Amino acid sequence: MAASKIDMKIKQYENTVVDYIRKGNGAFVVATHDTTFVSVLRNTIHKQLAISEDCIISVMDENNILKAVRNTSQRRKNILVFIERVFNNKETAFLVRQIKNAFSEVKVVILTGETERQRLVLLHEIGADNFISKPISMNILIEKIAFTIKPQGKIGKLIENGKQLVSSEQYEEALKIVRQILNIKPNSAAGFLIMGDAYKGLGKKEKAVEAYETASNHATMYMEPLKKLAEFYEEEGDHENRLRYLEKLDRLSPLNVERKVDMGGIHVTLGNEDKAEILFDQAINQARKEAMSYIEEVSSKIGGIYEKHDPEKAVKYYRRALELKGDMLDKSDIKTFNLLGIALRRQGKWREAVDEYNKARTVSPEDENLLYNIALAYAEGKDMRKATEHLAKALELNPEFHMQDPVIAYNFGLIYTKARKTDDAKVFLEAALSLNPGFEKAQKLLDSL
């Protein structure tokens, strides 16, 4: 695309966002601890779009998100919520569902790093309007916001118009819009979906099913046509066909607990007790996994309260948090392992800390932070050989690991000094001073070598 066309597109997206805030009285509720993302958003709104930052409402506690949306809705007509996929160590799928159930017009954008596709599919299914993979630039952020709040381009506007006509039961008019959509894009799954809704509204059931099937065939990952077909056959009392489409949905989004229960219920009705029991067990296991994540988060929070006042009780609650997960431990538990290790080290139990960090490594073997914490524990036990071995392993995984923070670089230097590896120690202490020239402890140690 030529530079001028790109500039025109960016300007179009900018105008959409500006209109959303100024004319549409729009606001952004931001639930994240990621200061980099918040900074990019604030710079985008304030510096690039020249709009006051008072349209941005930050939330730091997941328990206050719904309250923030409710309070903002009293002052603002339109709201877009940015929310981390995992916020305060807790999966936010339940919160997304709550937001969408309570405020159907609110748009939700999930902030995420790398994650399994099934998680994103589930979030999309329960109401997420868009996703942002971090880090993100200002221009891409503006584009993401623009596409979330308003259809961009002719076909997007026609689709939106068609949906509104179906909602107002103007089915014949909706079919006219569908013809325009299919003239532009003959294989438009969204167009065929509107066609199916319009024919269903007109009582033309066979044509509705055909349109939904066509929509599904043109977009195999598009779940809406399959949902429409499952709903259609539920209304018709056709258990076999409803089950067929629920099974297709389950293959696309296998983490949906409620759907597994629905499928099991149909098997009970059809007399397939064994199949029903398998599905019910899967539903319970998935629900248990989600519940355990929440219980772990609560136990971990209690551990944090005790951390400085009573490290022994902190250890008790951190261990309880991990034990509750049983064989369902995953990378989301690494933070709890790290907190447990720190609490043990505060009691001088460095060997136990090493054991816990090594358990964490079975879940996340490529985590350089765990190797660094193991090194600190060995250093506290005055085993400098093993401490430096683990620091070296951390650097193998991430050669720039020590450059993220002057204190980390200093700790590397201190451990290598105690291990009598002076040349290596100097490199790390110089790195600490390059990150913080006024770091007196690093300078003093470097001068002593």
TrEMBL record:
PROSITE patterns: TPR. TPR repeats lie at residues 155-188, 334-367, 368-401, 406-439. It holds the Pfam family TPR_7. Keywords: Kinase, Repeat, TPR repeat, Transferase. GO terms for molecular function: kinase activity. Gene3D superfamilies: 3.40.50.2300, Tetratricopeptide repeat domain. InterPro entries: CellSynth/LPSAsmb/PSIAsmb, CheY-like_superfamily, TPR-like_helical_dom_sf, TPR_rpt. This is Histidine kinase. It comes from Oceanidesulfovibrio indonesiensis.
